[in-house]
Amino acid sequence: MSKKLTSKQQKEQLNNLFAVYNKRLGRLYSDYVKKLTSLGYGEDVLKDDALFNFDNFPQLKARLNDIFNDYYQNSLLCYKSGITDGVALAYNHDEMVIGGYSVLTDKAIRVARDTAAATFISNRLKTKNGLNLAQIIWNYCQQTKSEFEMAMSNTIADGIKKGSSAEEVGKSIRKYLNDPDMMYRRYHTIKVQKNGKKKDVVTWRRRRIIDGKVRFVEEPLEKVGMGVYRSARKNALRVARTEINSAYHKARNERWQNEPFVIGQYIHVSPQHNIDDICNDLQGHYPKDYVWISWHSQCICTSDPITIQGEEKKEFYKRLMAGEDMSNYVSPFAVLTMPEKYNQYIKDNSEAIVKAGMRGKLAWHLQDNTKYWAHLLSPSDRKKLGLKAVSSKELILAKAKERHALRTKEQIDKIQSRWDKHRRDYYNGLVHNLLGSKSVTDIKSQDLFERYYAIRYAIKDKKSASEIASLYDRFKRGYQTKLAWTDRKVAMNVMKVAAKYGETDVSSVLSALKAADYTLARKEAKTLANTISAIKKDELSLSALIPDVNKWHKQFTSKELHGVYDAVEAKLAQWQSLTLEQQAKKLQFEAIDFLGGNMHGVQQKYATWKVSQAAYLKKLDEVKTAIDWVNINKAYADVKGYKTQSKIYHKLIYDLEHAMLAKDKTLAEQLLYEAKQKKETLINAKAKRNAKNVVFDTDQFSQSRKDAAVWDKGNGAKADKTLVDTASKQWIAATEKEKDFTYEYTHHYCDVNEPLQGRKYDNYQTKERFIEKVNNITSYIEKNELPTDMWFTRGDDGMKVIESRIKFAGGSMPNNLQDLVGMEMQEGGFMSTGSRKGKGFNTRSVIMNIYAPKGTKAAYVEPFSAFGCGDKRSWDGVSRFSIYSSEHETLFQRGTRMRITKVYEEGGKTYIDCEVIGQEIRDLSYVKDSNIGY
Q1: Partner residues linked to 209 by β-bridges
Q2: Is 711 found in the same domain as 679?
Q3: DSSP structure class, residue 593
Q4: What are the pLDDT digits (tens) for 402-413?
Q5: Whether the Cβ atoms of residue 338 and residue 366 lie closer than 8 Å to each other
Q6: CA torsion angle for 650, 656, 662, 667 (degrees, to 10)?
Q7: Are 286 and 125 in contact (CB under 8 A)?
Q8: pLDDT digits (tens, 9 = 90+) for 495-504
Q9: Is residue 663 a part of any domain in this protein?
Q10: What is the span of the domain harbouring residue 646?
């Protein structure tokens, strides 16, 4: 069995079927108009000011008839095909709902489906109460022809130039056919009749152009065209929709009447229904033999079968599958009565119904269902409609007595069976009225179920009327008791909820409960529930600033809380333009210092001071969270910008991005920490891979090499010429981080060198930033090699600096100055030197002359140094300079090892000549966290 569709889905499929045939009819209409346009008309038609009429072209009559008959026959076939498809769709929809519970064989269903469409078409082609389907289609085809003549007349009146193509003429004609109102206007005239009554007289006038002006000339109504619309095409589409819809619902209705599994039908408006009309009034549950196809023309309502449910459904299926003949099965829950709204509708509109019936214009839903509404009319109205009048009581009894005497036992048994059914229907009606909109299956009580079925069994066993009435009264009392206790339970529950909110008054509910007036208690509870709902909304609005509003509401009134809200809101508005950090300070002061510290006796002045404090703390938490997110975003930009092929690192960034999108701050911070750690690991690993401990051969330290080495004793041009090309190349290739941190080092270096040298840096600095800065400077210098042997100079403040380098290399300071010769020393940090003689802090007491062999890792930083004469950080690597600073700095790699070759004193200064013998980059794990900063 196919998947069951919802009522909405079924309606959509039916609407799709309408659309298919709308398109087919539209194509037929377009072809018809195109053929009419393409007929050969003489140019004399353009000179004639009379209405265009096909009768004026006898030579085209035969061809015109062929075109007209072809349009008519194809239109009729299209309608028949639409009806057939509508019936097929109806059977498909029913098969999804009742296919597994049908008492009909597959063959019987196929035969019924095949004959249903043919029967419907046959009936519609018979003349009854007006025009049949063929005549209606004929008229709309004729109306199309008339409209074409009128459109052609208007086209001529608009003024067509001689020699206009058929396409141009057709375009003008289609303009009028698509909007018939352009050709006609309806005029209302109030005329006084002989009897003195006023009457609205409608006349139609045709649009014409006379003397260059648009005029509307009166036109007989029969020339305008009949139908709901002035447009034949719209009328044709309207009929197609009506016929297909009627065939669809007629087929379903006939199927349901033969299926005991169907116990009624639910007629209801569609989701697209947006006006209040008869469809809304008549919506409800109807007997399944109530013949319904629509309430009115182009009605979009629908009808769904009501089927057996619950245990009865299981039992029905079980018996059906066992082979039992269920065709005569009658459900005790079958819908037998009409909705009260329907009965009221008949009563309210009886006069109009009688008038329509006398004219032979009864609506379909009235024509086919007289048994369901005729009894609601007066005897005189029934007589006017030709319906049987109700006999007097005596006549009825006399005729009944005569009939009774002539009845056979079989007839008596049938009457008894109908009487039993009547009694079932009667008590089912009483139960239905008692339950209202509910069903017996909705009752959640085994005791009431048993009481209800006791009535059914008593009827089946032919108990007396008094016994059955007693059982019904027992069921009624039980149900009413259940309702009363339900009302009591609802009232008690609302009171429990009310206890959770401030400013709620339960006295009226409590009073009704004490008086055992549970109906009143539920009514008062409903009022109380509305009050609670309003309180909830009020607390929700307050919760925007005040946390735990419900808790505070139990201590203070809504008015007091709103006072706090307004005061806090006004204060926050004053701080709106401040930065987040400034707002946090303000909020911290207001909540902790001012309110918490009882400044100016605020706690004694305002009973609600704790509420204000809670509001400020809530806002403080939000601001701190916002600050955290700002920091997260900044840190994210940093880790995101790091270039690596590590899949683990990219996965961390991916997870971090999703945590940020999900606003999961805790997870984002954790992932950010992991990303930073991973980045540090990757940078260290890269530094280890790239860094090479430089060791020089012995011949690189020969006197001849030293004598031939570059030693700029002039204005610095020689040193610049030697070093600037390497500096240029590596600066252009450097990363932004390498440039930033190397430039920053030239401005202040203590945060880097002091921890590297084993000393404590007495300022704030994070470990993460220290490692990042060291690694970037290291990687930059590692790319810079001296292109030749060269001398550099550096000044130090006393021999303590020399001693610290000797100790870093693992040695100890000798007592005798000359004993320094031959000793090794190592710079733990990066080492700044002067690139020419007399520079590099040469005013200090200890001057080092440093010989560096070719290949030594050292970066020429004069062009971008903060104290150089170049372009600072913005150096493009291309520009060259001819003036050099007093520092004229070249920066050596950290871990540079030197051997002292000569020590002498001169002019109050100590000179130490040394040679670079190697460069060892240590892992940063040797640096103590306590030395990095605080």
Answers
A1: 214
A2: no
A3: I
A4: 577 567 878 888
A5: no
A6: 140
A7: no
A8: 999 888 888 8
A9: yes
A10: 642-689
CATH number at residue 825: 3.90.176.10
Q: Kindly state whether residues 676 and 726 are assigned to the same domain.
A: no
pTM higher than the cut 0.85: no
Q: In this structure, are strands 846-852 and 909-919 parallel, antiparallel, or unpaired?
A: parallel
Q: How far is 624 from 818, CA to CA, in rounded Å?
A: 62
CA angle 83, 88, 91 (to 5 degrees): 130
Both tokens assigned to 678: 């991973």
Instruction: Summarize the confidence of residues 471-488 as an average pLDDT.
Output: 84
Cβ-Cβ contacts under 8 Å for 392 (sequence gap 6 or more): none
CA 637 to CA 221: how far, in whole Å? 80
In this structure, are 755 and 665 located in the same domain?
Answer: no
Give the CA dihedral 236, 238, 239, 242, nearest 10 degrees: 160
266: β partners: 285, 304
793 in Cβ contact with 835 (< 8 Å): no
Is 285 in contact with 325 (CB distance < 8 Å)? no
Quick one: tokens of 318?
Answer: 């079980």
What CA–CA distances, in Å, run from 880 to 497, 620, 711? 83, 54, 21
* Rg of the chain, C-alpha, whole Å: 51
Q: Which residue, chain included where needed, has tokens 């265009």?
A: 52
Alpha-carbon distance of 674 to 768, in angstroms, equals: 12
How far apart CA 382 and CA 290 sit, in angstroms, is: 20
Q: Name the more confident of 199 and 858.
A: 858
Measured between alpha carbons, how far is 869 from 884 in angstroms, rounded to an integer?
5
924's tokens = 């940063």
Would residue 105 count as lying in a domain? yes
SS3 at position 42: coil
Residue 439 in domain: no
Three-state SS at 822: coil
Per-residue model confidence as pLDDT tens digits over 428-475:
778 778 777 777 777 777 888 788 888 888 888 877 778 888 888 888
788/907 same-domain check:
yes
The sign one gets for the Cα dihedral 570, 575, 576, 581 is negative
Mean pLDDT for the stretch of residues 217-244: 64
Backbone angles phi, psi at 766, to 5 degrees: -85, 155
What are 407's two structure tokens?
């009845």
Q: What is the CB neighbour count within 10 angstroms for residue 95?
A: 17
Residue where one domain finishes, among candidates 181, 204, 232? 181
Outline where 734-863 has alpha helix (H): 736-747, 750-756, 767-782, 799-808
Residue among 781, 830, 782, 792 nearest 706 (CA): 792
Both 663 and 682 in one domain: the answer is yes
Q: Do residues 803 and 815 both lie within one domain?
A: yes
Q: Considering its fold, how many domains does the chain have in total?
A: 4
251 in any annotated domain? no
Kindly write down the DSSP assignment for every residue of 431-488, as one continuous string. HHHHHTT--GGG---HHHHHHHHHHHHHHHTT--HHHHHHHHHHHHHHHHHHHHHHHH
pLDDT tens per residue across span 280-335? 889 999 999 999 988 887 788 889 999 998 888 888 888 888 888 888 888 888 89
Boundary (domain end) residue, out of 689, 712, 728: 689
Residue 22 is encoded by which pair of tokens?
A: 């709308």
DSSP 824: E
- Determine contact, residues 238/229, Cβ cutoff 8 Å: yes
Q: How far apart are the C-alpha atoms of 511 and 179, rounded to whole Å?
A: 69
* Same-domain check for residues 665 and 738: no
Q: Please determine, for residue 273, whether its predicted confidence score (pLDDT) is greater than 90.
A: no
Cα 875 → chain centroid: 52
CA atoms within 13 A on the CB side of 81: 13
pLDDT at 162 over 70: no
Give me the pLDDT at residue 581, please. Answer: 92
Bridge pairing between strands 909-919 and 896-906? antiparallel
Structural contact between residues 888 and 832, judged by C-beta atoms closer than 8 angstroms: no
Quick one: 860 and 759 in the same domain?
A: yes
Q: Is residue 164 scored above 70 in pLDDT? A: no
C-beta atoms surrounding 498 within 10 Å: 20
Helix (H) or strand (E) run with residue 900 in it: strand 896-906
Strand partners, 190: 200
